[in-house]
Model the fold of this input.
Amino acid sequence: MTTEGNGAEGDVIRTLAIDIGGTGIKAMVLDNYGHPLDDRIKEATPHPAPPEPVIKIIKKLAEKHRPYDRVSVGFPGVVRNGITLDAPNLDDAWEGFDLQSKLTELLEAPTRVANDADVQGFGAITGKGVELVLTLGTGLGSALFVEGILFPNLELAHHPFRGKKKTYEDLLGKAALEKDGRKKWQKRLEFALKTLQKTFNCDKIHIGGGNASKVTRNALPENVRIVSNVAGLLGGIALWNDLHDTDCRRVPPVPADRAHRPIDESA
Done:
């Protein structure tokens, strides 16, 4: 068993970052500053995806990334104190599941769990002004930061969109993209960005997730950036800052040249 603060290589504390998605589960080891120490590995998310088979894959990925001293996990749903409250794109069995305690025991390392869009935001934001993060994947994730402080569990995905009975996730998730086509989906995204800009007066909007590569970039406002899916792993380092246990977390900004790199199409 490794111990938090006792790095496997001298003073380096190795953080195993895990990103759980609706279609894939990814992992990578980071150094003290959030720089990758090895290559990202990805496994397909099982279907159905209740806790047991998902945790089995996480353990498999962890074994491939040893040694590590601690673990950060981005989870696609609301998380409070390491307990998952829902997971609309995984399984109802996640409601009230103590994922943090389970992984701490199973992986034999201190573990912290947060919403995946929040973690992606930590890997993408500049830490200046009002920044909104949207992740386009199986569903739609969202996170809001003001001067680098996270306001957690925003969950825009389930808010009404365009005055209809549909939600943001209904009209911008993977199912809508596949059903209605890229052109119509893009127009909806552009409308959503205009609406959210008026709502939050954003200085920057960061778009990530597996379907960010489907976005037509030249149609986006100047303050909107596409970020690599790797930000969902790089942001894991922020879960270990000194203010981790507060509801609003201030984090040191991740250098932009690491977050705003070309999209990895295999993500």
Q: What stands out?
A: Residues 1-9, 243-248, 251-267 have pLDDT under 50 and may be disordered. Residues 127-226 form a domain with the Nucleotidyltransferase; domain 5 fold (CATH 3.30.420.40).
